[in-house]
Amino acid sequence: MRAIFLCLPAVLLLSACASTPDPAEVCTSEWIAPRATKAVGKIESSARSSLKTFSSVSKTWAKGDTPNLVQLWSLNKAMNKMKKELTRGQGIKDLKTVAKRCNDPNIIKDSMSELFRKQGMSENIVSWIENSPIYDSLIASIAEPTPVTPNG
Q: What is the tens place of the pLDDT at every residue in 90-126?
């Protein structure tokens, strides 16, 4: 009986190592797509008001008009709300996990760009967001997953 209790931790440790999936096997587009979509859905749900503001200003730019001061103030406020979601939200944590597992930080950036376009935002607003110092520093800080090394 004593031998079982002494061997149990070793067996559990070995089984944990064996269950860690190899990134080369799981990081196919078929594996990534549903996980990224689910994570982006969480971001979309939590950042609904920011996305609405981005979309509204996008329509102004699409008409060829320049956003007024109130719209610019709202845009800045929306960006700060988005910052909160992209630093503490469950969706970004999930997206970061996928990017880290696959050692591909572009998963985050590409998924966020797809979210903005899915909201019907013009290329002007997508470019503005992606080139914003707030967004750029956020993406840079969260899109630096440490490389996943194989066990053994």
A: 998 999 899 888 888 888 888 988 998 998 888 877 8
Count CB atoms within 10 A of the CB of residue 22: 10
- How far CA 120 is from CA of 12, 42, 53, 58, 61, in Å, comes to 49, 18, 12, 8, 12
3-state secondary structure the chain: CHHHHHHHHHHHHHHHHHCCCCHHHHCCHHHHHHHHHHHHHHHHHHCHHHHHHHHHHHHHHHCCCCCCHHHHHHHHHHHHHHHHHHHHCHHHHHHHHHHHHHCCCHHHHHHHHHHHHHCCCCHHHHHHHHHCHHHHHHHHHHCCCCCCCCCC
More confident residue, 152 or 70: 70
What are 134's two structure tokens?
A: 């707030």
Q: What is the pLDDT of residues 42-78, one digit of tens each?
A: 999 999 999 999 888 888 888 888 889 999 899 889 9
The rounded distance, in Å, linking the Cα atoms of 126 and 101 is 27
pTM of the model: 0.69
